[in-house]
Specification:
The structure holds 2 protein chains of 2 kinds.
Chain A lengths: L1 H18 L4 H17 L9 H31 L8 E6 L5 H13 L3 E6 L5 E6 L5 H20 L2
Antiparallel strand pairs in A: 1-3, 2-3
Helix pairs in contact in A: 1-2, 3-5, 4-5
Chain B lengths: L5 H23 L8 H18 L2 H7 L4 H17 L13 E6 L3 E6 H25 L3
Antiparallel strand pairs in B: 1-2
Helix pairs in contact in B: 1-2, 2-5, 4-5
The chains are: A mainly alpha, B mainly alpha.
Amino acid sequence: MPKQILLNFFLALLWMFLTVNYSLTALIIGYLLGLGLLFMMRRFFKERFYLERVWAVIVLFFIFQRELLLSNIQVLMLVLRPRLTIKPAIFALETDLKEDWEITLLSSLITLTPGTLVIDVSHDQKTLYIHALDVSDIDEAIHSIKTTFEKAIIEVSRP
Amino acid sequence: MKTNDVILKTGTKVVSFMIFLFSIHIFFAGHYTPGGGFVGGLLASSAIVLLLLAFDIKTVKKILPVNYITITAAGIIISILTASAAVFFNKSFFTHFFDYFHLPLLGKTSLHTATLFDLGVYLVVVGVTMTIIQTIGEDE
């Protein structure tokens, strides 16, 4: 992905020098033309075409927004309820993510959604320990995290 | 039993760059808007302190192999030379000069000798703050 972006930027600069027009418009036109060329030659690279990964980042952002809204409403319901009938729990989540930044991103997303909070990462970085505000079914909570956030992050980091 | 602080370290790798950049912006913004050498220096040293919190002293010494006492001395020398440069032009001590220059890429730019004085202040603040924190931190 970085190689493709660098090549695209280089093609944009080359377009600027070819047209002898050193302005921002020429750079943008060259960038878009280079994008088209890269799309044409996308099977030449080992990795995916990089716009797919940019799209995956946008999808992850909107998934996070949706989860944030839904879990905020859930916590609001818990707060406004006259009787506090919550079941707090700490559970372990086995994660398939490897890189440091992936673990950090997943932990940040889990922590930013109300109701769940990452309290520790194991030393081999395969397990996250999560505190949940209201868990009636732990397997269901693990499943929901795995199918939303982790799937989206894997989609971003897949080469 | 040491905890695994992968989240803090990864966050530091990103955030420290942002703090350094903001410190440079504050340093150059000091002439017309709030900011200047003192605040910029404190911000730069706060970025180094964040590195010290996330990693340990040995690693930070490997990352930034500088002697902070030397930096303090360099800052004071720059400030004194800038202040005393006016004496050689038959002006009083601490008189600043400025002029407009046409630089490549930047166009018409106003260059002021007060920036050099501020650079000295910046270096002194970074040097003194880091010297204090490192000497406290190294005591076993």
